[in-house]
Amino acid sequence: IPEVAGQTPVSGGRPIAEPRLATGTFLTVEEVAQTLRVSSRTVRRLIDAGRIKATRIGRVVRIRAGELDNI
User: Fold this and answer.
1) pTM of the full predicted structure?
2) What percent of the chain has pLDDT over 90?
3) What number of CA atoms fall less than 13 Å from residue 58's CA on the CB side?
């Protein structure tokens, strides 16, 4: 569908939604530790025990902010 400057592309008269990545706020291990007032080692232990779900991106570990509500 060709785009016209300043206009939203449409399909069948409706605007086409732009694809979105799954977004959310991610926290570092250190940020979670500060929030919970524990050491970063304790946070890593909670991750290893499965009590906190975390995502590893390369060598970096990130925790979704909403995950803290589940503790």
Assistant:
1) 0.65
2) 52
3) 1
